[in-house]
Specification:
Keywords: Hydrolase. The protein is mainly α and 131 residues long. The chain is built from four helices and two strands, in the order αααββα. Strands 1-2 form a two-stranded antiparallel ribbon. A hairpin with a 4-residue loop joins β1 and β2.
Length: 131
């Protein structure tokens, strides 16, 4: 958003790293560097990542970032919505695994960024960014 090329380059390197870690699941583990299939997922990290990707697409005009954000949000919607009687939107967040806090629960910031990402993606797509 500053227009500085080095920040855009850094953001694109982060996006490439994240994409390489997501593989086909589109829901990140609690830590992008975590190894093993038994590591808890973090829906809130997915929501935050999706929002960042939509913003990066706006800056770079690279539709690939919108496609990745869409895949993440689709997967979160299909696999991580909280039950209808819950006080949250997303389930399956991990707040602080090393301290045993908020594992496979919901977070207010996950819900916040999930809604922000959905609205940002809708706006980007309605403005023709996905064509």
């Amino acid at each position: 958003m500053t227009g500085r090329a080095e920040y855009v380059d850094a953001a694109e390197r982060v996006a490439a790293f994240i994409e390489s870690k997501l593989k086909d699941s589109f829901i990140p583990k609690w830590d992008y560097a975590a190894a093993g299939d038994q590591e808890p997922l973090d829906s809130s990290a997915g929501a935050i990542t999706a929002y960042g990707l939509v913003r990066l697409a706006r800056v770079t005009k690279n539709v690939r970032y919108l496609q990745l954000a869409h895949s993440i949000l689709d997967t979160l919607s299909a696999q991580c919505l909280a039950s209808p009687d819950a006080d949250s939107i997303l389930a399956h967040a991990t707040a602080d695994l090393p301290h045993g806090l908020g594992i496979d629960e919901s977070t207010a910031y996950g819900d916040f960024y999930f809604l922000k990402a959905l609205l940002a993606l809708r706006d980007a797509m309605s403005n023709g960014a996905a064509s």
